[in-house]
Every structure is written in structure tokens, then in C-alpha cells.
Amino acid sequence: MSDIKIWKGNSTFILAAAGSAVGLGNIWKFPYMVGSNGGSAFVIVYLICILVIGLPVMASEILIGKYGRKSPINSLKKLSKDLNLNKNWYFLGVLGAIAGLLILSYYSVFAGMAFSYIFKIFPSGLENPSNYSSNYFGSLSSSPVILIFWHSIFLFFTCLIVGFGVVKGIGRSVNILMPFLFIFLLAVSAYSAYVGDLKSTLNFLFFPNFSALTPEVILSAMGQAFFSLSIGMGAIMAYGAYMPEKQVIGKTVLTIIFLDTFVAIAAGIAIFPIVFSNEYLEISAGPGLIFETLPVAFYSLPFGELFSIIFFILISIAALSSSISLLEPFTAWIEERKIIKRKIIVLLLGLSTWILGLGSIFSFNIWSEITFLGLNFLELLDYLTNNIMLPLGGFLVAILVGWLISEDFLQKNIKMNHLQFSVFKFFLKYVSAGSIVLIFFYSVL
Ligand code: PHE
């Protein structure tokens, strides 16, 4: 047991897990998905999914990691052995470790783009900044070489941190990165709410309008909840293994979920007011929303250039604290075999992910015409991971913890009072597992 790594104090686990959860999912994806899925309807389904599925599944993942004190795969092996369950449950960990690499491969492409925007300064005196911006985004996404460059840089930093290990790499960097992120985000949202159209934004985000609700929207909202909370693939389970013994799971999960949701809404408030107040910008611009429209919005505003730089630094920090958790489950698993050193493992996994990322890069340009079921490589990976693999992972966690583990064992490890425990168990057992299945079949069939 001597090689067990555990973070000191309660805050590192919270920062690391919130760092994993808060990322491109909140600042890049949430706003554009809200924008293209009809606003408040999507937001409301998303929030419900966070509460009824996200909360219980996240608590269960932490529980498994904390009990096993190993990589998700080996924690699952230990759990099923100790409780006499089917020994194949560790496949759930394998599924997650693979999903992590698949997600990382395209995550790094978008994070690299965001990183590149820190250095992009629009020339002054432009007559038509919107035109300039879409031309610029067009030229960036049509150039495999430039995209590969930024993808490589981002992946390099991810591997560097994970290579340094759990305490020195991940623990230390989240302690530095996360406070910056919160401060920057508050600054940008306050600025945007002040100079932009806050009223239309609040209306769009919160005024109930269910006409836009379709099965597809519901599935996307659920997929987004999984993606944004980093659940269903073992990232949070892997971090659970480094959680101090005394830290209470229930309270910690509430804090993480609150932070994640707060950042997603704050990102909406940072972006929509300026989009609404500019007649050239389209709320439903899709994945290009923050790249194409935001620089234009910032362009015409006082101190806009400075805030644009701050905004893209913010996204890069958020992306980095998430990407490390995508790589950790696979890395930790191989490290436990004690054959190869962590740094070499990270190098090999990083290389494989880099190669896979080329497929997503080419989806913007040379492979854009190649599709399967109407989706290109990148869209296919996105659909497969968010709408299938993560919900499947979450469903299996809910079945394992909600149905197969004995009540005594659960209660002993999760440490909740009677009422909290009953609510948790009920939700996990029936509501979480049930709604994943329902939403999945409702939208696919
Ligand atoms: N939650 C991260 C985000 O919102 C992405 C992520 C998904 C990270 C799954 C780890 C695991 O950007």
C-alpha cells in the first residue's frame, strides 16, 4: 500500500474534479449547443439531467475510486472481487479509458484552436470585422498544417502535466490554474453583461420555451450533462482514488456540480449579451460560435482586445485542467502494471491520441466530404463518445452501485445520513438508470 498517492487537504480534490468538469464543455460547447438547440428548453433539460443523473452517478464514481484506490480498471476489479460480483465489471473501466483517449483526440484540436486565438490580434481600422473573422476562421480550419501545429502544442502540455504525476503534476497545476479561471470568468461575464444585451440573454436562457424540444435535443442535453461533468468514462473515478480518506463524498459532489453549472451559465452570460447586441452575429453559429463571433464582438468594444486575450487564456486553462483527466485513467492503469515508467506511457498514449486527432483535423478540410451515416469523422467521434459511450458508462455505474452493491457496504463507504442515503439510492437505482435508458431509446428509435 506504500505507493498510494493521495492529495493533501480537501481543496485539491475539489479543484481537480472541478478542473476536470469545467472545460471546453462549459465555455465552448454549452453556449453553442444552447444557441443551436433553442435556448431555455435545452438549458432546463440539461439542468434536470445534471441533478437526477449527474449527481448520483458522480457520487458513485468517486465511491468506487476511493474504495479501490487504484486506476478505474483496477478499482473495479478490486470491488468486484471483494464483493463477489462478476469479474468482468472491469470492462467498464476499459470502455472509459478508451473513451477518454477518443475524446482527448478531438478535444485537443479545439483546445489548440482556442490557444491559438490568444495570439490572434485583429488589425485595427477594419471596415467589416465579421467578414474578416469568418475568413480568418475559414483559413484556420482549412489549413491542416496550422491545426496540427496547435493540436501538437496543446497535447504536449497535457502530456507534460500528466507525465509529472498525480501530486506534482495534476495536483499542483490545478491549484494554480483554477483560481485564475474563476477570476477571469467573472471579469469577462461582468464586462459582457455591462456592455451587451443582458436582458435578451436571460430571456433566452431561462424563459421557458418548450417548442424547441425534440428527442434529439433531449439526447444532446443528456450527452452534454455527461460530458460537462466528466462522468461516464472514469475521469472522476480515477481522481476518487486520490481523495483524502476523511473527505465527505456527498458534500464534495454538490460543490463540484455547483461549480460546473455556475461556469456554464457564466459562460453563457459572457458570450450571449455581446452576440445579442451585435446585428451581424448569429446565436446559432454552432461550433464556430466563440471563434468566429466573439472576436468580432470584442473588436468594437472598449478594451475589447484585452478581454479577448483574457477570454482565450481562460478557455485554454479550463481545457488543460480537463484534458489531463482524460489521459489519467489509461495512464494510471498501465502504470500499475509496473513495466513502463509513467513518462514513457504518457508519451506513447499522447502519440496515439495525436494520430487519432489528425482524423478530426482532416474533417475540417481534406476529409470533409467523407461521411458515414451523414457524419464526418469528427462528428462521428463526438456522437459516439458523448451520446453513446458516456451514457452507457454512466448507466453501468448506476446498475453496479444502485443494484448490485449491498446497502451496508454502500452506507459504510458513502457516509450519508439516513434521509440523504435513501434519496441518493432511490435516484441512482430508478431515476438515473431509468432515464438514461428512456432518453437513449426515445431518441434513437
Ligand atoms: N468535462 C470536460 C469539459 O467540460 C470534458 C471531459 C469529459 C473531461 C470527460 C473529462 C472526461 O470540457
Can you describe what's shown?
The chain has 445 residues and is mainly alpha-helical. The chain has a single domain (3-444), classed as Amino acid/polyamine transporter I (Up-down Bundle), CATH 1.20.1740. It is 78% helix and 0% strand. It has 18 helices and no strands. The chain has helices at residues 9-21, 24-36, 40-68, 72-82, 91-118, 129-141, 144-163, 166-195, 198-206, 215-229, 235-240, 249-276, 289-299, 304-336, 342-364, 377-404, 407-414, 418-444. Helix 7 (144-163) packs antiparallel against helix 15 (342-364). The longest helix has 33 residues, at 304-336. It is globular. The mean pLDDT is 91. It binds phenylalanine. Phenylalanine binds next to helix 1, helix 2, helix 10 and helix 14.
What's the count of strands? 0
Pairing-aware structural class of the strands and helices?
mainly alpha
Bound small molecules, deduplicated: phenylalanine
| CATH domain topology | Amino acid/polyamine transporter I
Number of domains: 1
Count helical runs.
18
Mean pLDDT: 91
Distance between the termini: 48 Å
CATH class: Mainly Alpha
The SSE string, one letter per element, is: HHHHHHHHHHHHHHHHHH
